[in-house]
Amino acid sequence: MGALALAGYGWLRERPQDLPWTQLDLADPIGMFTGSKLAGLTDDFDQCRALLDRAGVGYDAADAVSRPDQPQCGYSDGIELSGGDEGLDLSPGGLETACPVAAALMKWKWDVLQPAARRHFDSRVAQVIHLGSYSCRRLYGRESGGWSEHATADAVDISGFRLEDGTRISVLEDWDGEGARAAFLRDVRDGACKLYATVLSPEYNAQHRDHFHFDQAERGASGRRMCG
């Protein structure tokens, strides 16, 4: 029994990504606690920026946004990712998101998105097409009720992709199809579920028929995650 415990301890020591108390490193493989550690960066902008710096990610810190008339809206931890190998080419450009969302996007690019593109198309993703991040609004644009993670730029909506070989993949047009495009979309959705607190797709409801919603909602000690 002792030998088994020692073997288990040795295995865990070699997998810091599967331990809740180890420091997050974007160079490590995705582990059991990678997503919760990313979401936990919401209140620590300095640590999130240091994480990006260690990984060599190109970015600019964004100016803080506040709404005195609507204190539930705004952000002070905004990041605008650069393009190229050390960043993420986004269309339209100039996207600002909360830092934990940006950090997860980079991890998603390296460990999920590009491997899926190589596997299904023998190509690379050249551009990720999005519908924006920050929007001062409540859930589903309602006049009352809870506030959307978009209200603090802690969410991003992804609508499609363009590959280096020119192939275009659309959530709206290809999710219900057959073959490589639909399989690719499901793979990148499933991979995002390991990195974000919430991932919603056309499988979740009609409001998401044309995009993936990724967010880093903090859900306290439960660490509950939502993937649909």
TrEMBL record:
<feature type="domain" description="Extensin-like C-terminal">
    <location>
        <begin position="47"/>
        <end position="227"/>
    </location>
</feature>
<dbReference type="InterPro" id="IPR009683">
    <property type="entry name" value="Extensin-like_C"/>
</dbReference>
<protein>
    <submittedName>
        <fullName>Extensin family protein</fullName>
    </submittedName>
</protein>
<dbReference type="Pfam" id="PF06904">
    <property type="entry name" value="Extensin-like_C"/>
</dbReference>
